[in-house]
Design goal:
The complex is a heterodimer of chains A (98) and B (751). Chain A contains three helices and four strands, in the order E-E-H-E-H-E-H. Chain A has 98 residues and is α/β, with parallel strands linked by helices. Chain A has a four-stranded mixed β-sheet, with helices on both faces. The longest helix of chain A has 16 residues. In chain B, helix 4 packs antiparallel against helix 5. Classes of the chains: A alpha/beta (98), B alpha+beta (751).
């Protein structure tokens, strides 16, 4: 399934997005677009990855680079509510999440 | 290392001693290699590594005495490695002494911990330290004189500083591997996902920390999402060989740059890593510190070394240029290219070896003996079951039992196999002995080893080592003459001792031969006469004469040396070999050399036997020694009055009837069978009533009452519960050969 991003109301001024679908090399182009869109909105971001059914290193790379970019822009992104798949990979690469 | 308290030290201590002894073995081996070829780079490097490892681990366990000493040895070897000090036989002797000293203190500390050295050892240490210092200073002085060395105001101070601040001595504290991965950008598109490889690491160890890097990315908007920008710095905790880790990424070898640093690597290796990685040195250094591969101090040291190592040659903008592994070392003239290649290759070999070693486990010999005893009981019970099953006439049961018997046989074989050890390791130990002895006696002798892969029961190997030592000493002392003597005889000045081992019918043969003087028959004869071993005018064959050598107190050496010549020896050797159910024989040609051949039985506890019936009794012959079975008629045996000889396809075969020999009283069978046996290159036939066939035989030692029973080497219990004697075939063959030989001679004389 293609990647989908939905905006939800977040806590205390943070914007929350819920991602679902596949975050793999096959959907990398779309995923990058979605993440770039999310980055273009102002403020700190919570990214709910509960709906990520599949993830590979290409997908992980985009989340990682997005986090770095946000850091450079002086904003924070929290990856939260990770699906089992996503959690496994984030843990393997020792990437922070909530 | 600061991490020592994490481990249970007492447990690890045992490993330290085992490992150090292994290292010392390598150390000695390398020195012996180097003695033959001073420029053997691989050995020099292995030598250095061995000293270095001992130093490192002794330091870790707080054995200061060992650490201090090996440190000095290591410093000296470092000079050799850098070609600032050349290796000669004198220095090798000193290093061999160092090896002996380290072995001694390791033995001393084993089980006791560090204790005060006895005066003798302390003296030895001081002398050796003095020697080492002399060499180190000599090398420095030589360098200064040649004007190549760094300007040094005082040679002594210089040495001090080298001793403490040699960069080769700095090792990082991290007990983990450091793995650095950089991928080709197209890796995702090529359908590869690094995660499967990285997560596989968790199968062989534990990933302690990962740092994900993305050095080329400036902005999220500019990236191509299908390309890989990531690099990984991984801190990996595993007890494994470098090769194993390399193998994990083998599949990716074309698509990634892999760098692996072992635990406790030299800080210089980290410097090289920092330099090679595409990221800025400061940046990568920080990352290494952050994930714990380097401590703060180590990082500072690394960065200053980095400047030292690359500062002069590279301008800052060249900093990030990539260099293949080792290039820097070559630039620094630390090593030359072929040496480096060899060293890398060698390192791989060593790792491979270590890996092989890791695949084996140490088991208490007692447990193994226990297992073998149990299997012995199992074999006997199995035979019993088989007997009962055959009696029952139940075909299904019989089928199951025969499968079980086969399995028991397999279990037995594999268990016996556990005890088999290659004899090569034992052979190698004699190299040092030959070297030292020949030096001492002013001779030039080389030891040539072959057949080191022959396997022998471990207990046998242990028990054979003393007799072997004796034979080798004999060869050095009596066998091979001095260089002058040899040249005068028109032989090469260098003498050779051969150690060889191979399998033969029913036995394993170990040969110790030399190309020396050979035995002087006249001398032996005179001496034997003098000692009353033979009578005046008695004719003796060469074989008989040589056998006298094994008589107690017999020695022809004119000079009693501290090595041999006292006459205690060959008889003890013979006794030792015979206690192992083995045999020893000697061949010698005067002026050409001597060969001592030891035949040993294959196993000790359980054998494949060949069961025969004589009268009402059962006897077992070791199957390995049985060559064939022939049926002969009674007339064929009866017809011979004097010697019992039969014609076996043109070969004269002495034989005897076991029925007569053992006085079996029962009806004579109309037909008789001859079982032809061979041991130690001698053959004999034994007449039996009925050959029964193969039988798994558990050798049960016989009680004290039967101590003097000559012709049986043991007994076994049959399935029926009956006892069968295991015939001592070698002994019987010898008996048959001798008695029949005498009869033959008698016949010839009367004719």
């Amino acid at each position: 399934m293609k990647i989908q991003a939905k905006q939800q109301k977040g806590d205390s001024g943070r914007t929350k997005y819920v991602l679902s679908g596949e975050a793999t090399i096959y959907s990398a182009v779309d995923l990058r677009q979605s993440l770039a869109d999310i980055l273009s909105s102002p403020g700190d971001i919570d990214l709910d990855l509960g709906g990520i059914e599949k993830i590979d290193t290409a997908g992980f790379q985009l989340f990682h680079l997005m986090g770095r970019e946000a850091g450079r822009l002086g904003r924070t992104i929290s990856f939260m509510n990770l699906s089992n798949e996503a959690k496994r990979l984030f843990d393997l690469y020792c990437e922070d999440h909530q | 290392m600061a991490t020592g308290d994490k481990f249970d030290l007492t447990e690890a201590m045992g490993i330290f001693f085992t490992e150090s002894r292994e290292m010392l073995e390598t150390f000695e081996g390398c020195l012996l290699n180097l003695e033959k070829d001073f420029s053997d780079e691989e050995s020099i490097h292995a030598l250095f590594r061995a000293a270095h490892t001992i130093k490192g681990s002794s330091g870790m366990f707080g054995f200061e005495e060992i650490e201090r000493f090996t440190h000095a040895v290591e410093n000296l070897l470092d000079l050799v490695r850098k070609k600032e000090l050349s290796l000669g036989s004198e220095l090798i002797s000193v290093l061999l002494d160092c090896h002996d000293y380290i072995s001694q203190i390791i033995n001393l500390f084993d089980g006791k911990g560090e204790v005060k050295l006895p005066d003798g050892l302390a003296l030895k240490r001081d002398m050796l330290m003095e020697e080492l210092k002399k060499y180190i200073e000599g090398a420095k002085a030589g360098l200064d004189a040649a004007g190549e060395a760094r300007p040094s105001p005082g040679a002594l101070e210089e040495e001090e500083s080298v001793m403490s601040a040699d960069p080769g001595d700095e090792f990082v504290a991290s007990p983990y591997w450091h793995i650095s991965l950089r991928f080709k950008q197209s890796i995702f598109v090529d359908g590869l996902d690094p995660q499967s490889f990285i997560s596989y690491l968790n199968e062989i160890g534990k990933i302690e920390q990962v740092m994900v890097l993305a050095h080329d990315v400036t902005s999220f908007g500019d990236i191509d999402p299908e390309l890989c920008y990531l690099g990984f710095e991984i801190v990996f905790n595993a007890q494994t060989a470098k090769e194993t880790i390399e193998n994990v990424f083998d599949f990716l070898s074309e698509d990634c740059e892999l760098r692996i640093l072992p635990p406790g690597s030299n800080i210089r290796e980290y410097v090289t890593l920092i330099n090679e990685l595409p990221e800025k040195p400061m940046h990568i250094g920080e990352i290494l510190r952050e994930i714990g591969s380097l401590t703060e101090t180590e990082l500072r040291r690394a960065l200053s070394l980095q400047e030292e190592m690359f500062g002069e040659k590279l301008s800052p903008d060249q900093y990030e240029s990539k260099k293949p592994i080792g290039e820097i070392m070559v630039q620094e003239k630390m090593v030359q290219r072929p040496v480096l290649d060899a060293a890398l290759e060698k390192q791989k070999d060593i790792k491979k070896n270590e890996e092989l070693k890791k695949k084996s486990i140490r088991v208490d010999a007692f447990k193994l003996d226990n297992l073998i005893n149990l299997i012995g009981e199992l074999v006997i019970t199995g035979a019993n079951v088989k007997q009962l099953a055959e009696g029952s006439g139940n075909s299904e049961l019989n089928e199951a039992v025969s499968t079980m018997s086969r399995l028991i046989e397999d279990v037995r074989d594999s268990t016996m196999n556990i005890r088999m050890v290659q004899i090569g390791e034992t052979f190698k130990r004699y190299e040092r002995i030959v070297r030292d002895l020949s030096k001492e006696r002013g001779k030039n002798i080389e030891l040539v080893i072959s057949g080191g892969e022959t396997e022998l029961d471990k207990t046998l190997i242990e028990k054979i080592s003393d007799p072997m030592m004796h034979l080798i000493r004999n060869a050095v002392d009596h066998g091979i003459g001095t260089q002058e003597e040899r040249t005068a005889q028109g032989k090469p000045a260098k003498g050779t001792i051969y150690l060889n081992s191979y399998n033969e019918t029913g036995s394993i043969v170990i040969e110790v031969s030399d190309d020396g003087n050979g035995l002087n028959k006249r001398k032996i004869y005179d001496k034997a006469l003098q000692q009353g071993l033979i009578a005046e005018g008695q004719t003796v064959t060469d074989e008989e004469l040589f056998r006298l050598i094994f008589a107690p107190g017999f020695s022809t050496a004119e000079k009693v040396t501290n090595i041999s010549g006292r006459g205690v020896g060959m008889d003890v050797v013979k006794k030792n070999i015979e206690s192992l159910r083995g045999q020893i024989e000697l061949e010698s040609v005067e002026g050409e050399g001597t060969t001592v051949r030891i035949h040993l039985p294959l196993t000790l506890a359980i054998i494949d036997g060949f069961m025969v019936q004589v009268g009402k009794s059962y006897y077992i012959l070791p199957l390995d020694m049985v060559v064939e079975c022939n049926e002969i008629t009674e007339q064929e045996i009866e017809g011979k009055d004097a010697g019992n000889f039969m014609n076996l396809r043109g070969e004269v075969l002495p034989f005897m009837s076991l029925r007569e020999f053992f006085n079996e009283e029962s009806e004579k069978a109309t037909r008789s069978n001859i079982v032809v046996t061979e041991y130690g290159r001698k053959k004999a036939g034994f007449g039996v009533d009925r050959p029964i066939g193969e039988f798994q035989t558990v050798i049960k030692p016989m009680g004290k009452i039967f101590k003097n029973l000559k012709w049986a080497s043991g007994a076994t219990i049959l399935g029926t519960g009956d006892v069968a004697m295991i015939l001592d075939v070698p002994m019987l063959i010898q008996y048959v050969q001798e008695t029949q030989g005498a009869k033959k001679a008698a016949v010839q004389e009367t004719v």
